[in-house]
Amino acid sequence: MKEKIHSKFLSQFGEGGVFYASAGRINLIGEHTDYNGGYVFPGAIDKGIMAEIKPNGTEKVRLYSLDYDASVIFGLEEADKPAEAWARYIFGVCRETIKRGGKVAGFDAVFAGDVPLGAGLSSSAALESCFAFAINDLNHNGLDLFELARIGQSTEHNYCGVKCGIMDQFASCFGKKGQLIRLNCKTLEHQYFPFNPEGYKLVLLDTCVKHELASSAYNYRRQSCERAAAAIKQNHPEVEFLSDSKRVWLDEVRDKITEEDFIRAEYVIGEVQRVLDVCDALERGDYETVGEMMYQTHFGLSRLYEVSCPELDFLAKLARKMEVTGSRVMGGGFGGCTINLVKDELYEGFVRKAAEEFKAEFGHELKVYDVVISDGARKL
Ligand code: ADP
Ligand code: MG
To answer: What's the rounded Cα separation, in Å, for the pair 263 and 244?
Structure first.
């Protein structure tokens, strides 16, 4: 990728610049916990964005996207917002840097990526954090990684119409090779845990479906959680978010809330605990327990939180049958990928059989993405 970018840079802009890169992300466990003030547990992956960048001495940004084979030029005022969706991510990063008092000198850039788009691996966060990091470095702005993550998140909010949380940009900025990051979504405290599953592979199976239910169901789930938390708070005023509650406190209000709200809350409180259990297991290098927790999360998302779908359940069930160590739906649900922790010796057979049986059952192909936990935003 680097050679292709560089040769394009030379033909497009003349003399070469500096290389920066960033990454997409996975979330090992901790799903639907973010808006409940709980933990998520993401890591950056070996798929990302790479860019060659050079200040051009003007007030303009000139971009070339290798993947889209397209150029865009824009100025740095709010009114200069480009029409192309992909360029808005970079324009947004420039604007959000300026809003934070950072300097953004005009620059030329050629970039490309290998994060599959819209597959739940956050190619958009990879793009934002690559440019946020590069602009900060080239202009000596001195913003910290946390501020760079915020710049990416605000870009999504203010320039791309996506009201996302901080996890994706956080993972993409803070990611380190062989380490996952446990992020407390309430306090934003974070801690690294080793993830070096020797003898195992991490592989995502993309169902390539997105069921319509997703956004309305998301709002219903949120409301259930808020109602359950409010009921618990009556007995335990310290409960601000559902994740603050103990399981027994939920049991105390069982007859005060609906059965539906109860099982949603049961999932969330269980999931917060599973993140902690997975962190303990990783410190012992116990990947079998990690895998078991992944299956429990899948069960919870499917049966209690009810955000799975036939395609995802099919893949998780097949994984279990083939004695794959761990498998679960990753992301909000109703489609997208399963994330699988697979022993090396089972890997080929599992991926082949999953692809065959999935096609036979649903009539279309799935996609396979191998991932390794890797470094996030950086200068090359
Ligand atoms: P994801 O879940 O992958 O983040 P999004 O819809 O949030 O999906 O972001 C995908 C968008 O990000 C693309 O439509 C494109 O505008 C931009 N993008 C991501 N990767 C690239 C790339 N390699 N080149 C150009 N634009 C990209
Ligand atoms: Mg995105």
So the answer is: 17
Question: In sequence order, what are the beta bridge partners of 70?
Answer: 65
Residues within 5 Å of ion ligand 2, judged at the Cβ atom:
122, 124
Residue 72 forms beta bridges with which residues?
Answer: 63
Q: How far is the CA of 196 from the centre of ligand 2 (A)?
A: 26
Domains of the chain: 2-195 (3.30.230.10), 200-370 (3.30.70.890)
- pLDDT tens digits for 108-137? 999 999 999 999 999 999 999 999 999 999
33 class by beta-carbon count within 10 Å (0-12 exposed, 13-18 middle, 19+ buried): buried
User: Among 27, 89, 123, which residue has the most ligand 1 atoms within 8 Å of its CB, making it the best to mutate?
Assistant: 123
Query: The whole model's pTM is what?
Result: 0.95
d(CA 290, CA 201): 13
Coil vs helix vs strand at 138: helix
pLDDT tens, 56-114?
999 999 999 999 999 999 999 999 999 999 999 999 999 999 999 999 999 999 999 99
Cα separation of the two ends of the chain = 13
- Residue keyed to tokens 């964005």: 49
* Dist. CA 260–CA 264, nearest whole Å: 6
| CB distance 122 to ligand 1 below 6 Å | yes
Q: Collapsing DSSP states into helix, strand and coil, what is residue 108?
A: strand
